[in-house]
Amino acid sequence: MKPLTLFLFVWVAIFSPGTLADTRLNKPVPLYEPEQDFNQWLASDQGQKASLTQMRERCDRVLDAAKNLDCSVTVIARMFELKAANQLPDYYLAIKRKHAPAIEADQELNMLFSMFGEQSLSTLGTTGDFTVKKTSQREVLRIHPYASDYFIAGEQLPFIDVAAANGHSARFVLDTGAPQTRVNVDTARQMGIKLLTDSHYAYSTFYGEGNLSARLGILDSLKVGTSEFRNVLVFVSDRDNLLGLDLISKLGRLKLTRKTLELNPTLSPRCDSPINYSRNDLNQRLAIAANLDNRATQAIVDTGNVDYLTSAMPGEQINVVQAMTPGNSPPETSDRHRYQRFKGVLNLPGQSLPITYKYYPGFTIPPSWVQGRYVPSVLLGWRAFDDFELNLDIEAGRSCFNKV
């Protein structure tokens, strides 16, 4: 596994088979089981709920130098996901010193441990704790189809109004398919971001785009309705504003329909298709066990995807057309890609739908781990919300995709 790939926006499911400690009779069992696989533990329920302190302690037990470096990179990634900006500098520098020869010898590790300059580390170190103040009341927020009322994009996505501490407001795509929140450089400036000017970050998307450049920054406050995030570590680029799953998942119980985002909705008695929330480092996803044309797969709920269904598996072809890259507005000629349309049958728990879907050759839709092997995934995009609604409750572990 290349550690830098943990920091890409490309979704990757990481599962390591590992080995269990030998527990045969008459063989002493180490108190801390240092040989137990870290990734295996991280994928368990205990690992998924672990605090940063617990993750660091677990990684410290890994004695093999290469594996220790690997799990240390995972801890750094979790710091990003949890927005623990002020914990990054000391740990980042300690790992950089501890594994200097290995980092120097690996190009991707070198890039990773060169992403922050002295000024960035100083700013991160003096940043206050990341906090979330969630509203306890039911609140219904409007979903807008476009970035603004004065600009009509070539594609319709779920935009929501997000406000900053200085009073500036902008529309962000409510994007359950984006693991991390991203702010456009102009919006970040208007919102008064503390830009980490000597930070640099390269990322990719599963739409086939690579080596995209971003920096990082700290926003004093971001408000979604009356809920507020403070001291928010975000990525800053020249692309659209995205409110990613890192912040969406921290808003509490939600209901998302074609027209509204509802905070603290009435509990639904139904759960047509249960959703599994999983995370590995910066990669987070909402997935449903599904079948497409009798092939087992995972359907990833991606509201930042303009299609009804996008598949990594071609089926019975209907036609070939020219189309823009999903999730990127305004569309540019240089961003256009060819896609193919297919017809098939999508089976979700409790639902069977005849469907026309799209396949984009060359797109790197992440595979999923199903029944002991990797299989191609499918993306349920924003147009699927013509027929479905999302009930999200990650803290309670009860999230559902319900037929309207």
TrEMBL record:
Known Pfam families for this protein? gag-asp_proteas
Q: Out of the domains of life, which is the source?
A: Bacteria
Extract the Gene3D superfamilies matched here: Acid Proteases (2.40.70.10)
InterPro entries attached to this UniProt entry: Peptidase_aspartic_dom_sf, Retropepsin-like_bacterial
Q: What is the protein's given name?
A: Retroviral-like aspartic protease family protein
What CDD domains does this protein map onto? Answer: retropepsin_like_bacteria
